[in-house]
């Protein structure tokens, strides 16, 4: 189903809706050809009770998965924003360091941000990291490690910058982990089985107006399909057309370029 992520959201919704609703209509037709509405009505009382109990359990499961997926999506977005802000902090803190060291840090910070935007954001769609971006971060580390702390006029700023560099590495790792941290397959299996069961269960309710049953079944199918699509999108925060964008990094890059230009 991952191909749905790369389609425009509207196209994915239409495709999922058409396929799922068509399948449910065919399934309902198949059942109604073999069982009359009178035969199905005989079990309405028991079937309705069981369907209500199943619906409650399924609703709780779906609500929990959507909540967790949405929370993870927002956390991934927040981690990326914090990472970008840490780059800006390093850039600004470098202003309190000697000229040579300041120039090296600011150049490395700009280069790292550029490679994250131009390479790594696309690479994360495949679940991999940019080697170039990683090397730019390593270069930042080398600059700080090679600095002669005893010769620095403002050691507290250097120490604070080093702390921010540690945080930058941590949030970068969290971002990369998020690009590969998906809902377990067994959860997807349970969700899909429950969704199919909820739709299939409606086939065995008999109504005199068959068109009304088609509509009700189609609506339930559509809701299930859209929820599954929503979970799929939220489960892949750095993949597809609805992925977390790189706005924070582009904003920070523009900020740093303006600072270097004296703006």
Structure, explained:
The chain is an all-alpha fold. The protein has 9 helices and no strands. The chain has one domain. Helix 3 packs antiparallel against helix 4, helix 5 packs antiparallel against helix 6 and helix 7 (185-202) packs antiparallel against helix 8 (210-234). It has helices at residues 9-34, 37-41, 44-93, 99-123, 131-146, 155-178, 185-202, 210-234, 247-260.
Report on the biggest sheet. none
Tally of alpha and pi helices = 9
- Estimate the strand proportion: under 5%
- Overall mean confidence score, pLDDT: 89
Secondary structure category: mainly alpha
Estimate the global geometry from the Cα principal axes: elongated
Which spans of ≥5 residues are poorly predicted at pLDDT below 50?
none
What value does the Rg take, in angstroms?
Answer: 27 Å
Domains, number: 1
Which H/E pattern describes the elements?
Answer: HHHHHHHHH
Count the beta strands. Answer: 0
What is the percent of helical residues? Answer: over 70%
Q: What separation lies between the terminal Cα atoms? A: 47 Å
